[in-house]
Amino acid sequence: MTGILELRGLSSEAKIGKIILIVSLVLSILAVALVLLAGVLIARMLQGLPGLFIGGLYALAFVKILGIILGFVSLWSTGSGRWQRAGIIALIASIVPPLDLLMLVSGLFFLFSPEVKEEKVKQNGG
Known about the structure:
Blueprint: H1 12-45, H2 51-79, H3 83-95, H4 101-111, H5 114-123
Helix pairs in contact: 1-2, 1-4, 2-3, 3-4
């Protein structure tokens, strides 16, 4: 069991996956902040604009926040040594609209890391 941000003692795949996941989470948080800011600015500047466009921006931000939450759950799973779970959750988080390719790549790195094989051996009692 390692810390969430701990990289010592991990395979190259796990390290790369963790770094990519963290970068993806930071970029996703910035993107949500920009979308929310754009929605507020557009609503203030163009008061006659149909609310559907602004509502769409807010809906997109809400769905992306769900993907970010799943990304943090994946990162937490790596800290508790559950690499297969972390990879699956990262893959699920990557397909939450809009598609997040960095999270997809990190999930694949997690699933193909040697830590998953060690986890399976421990589960099978070997």
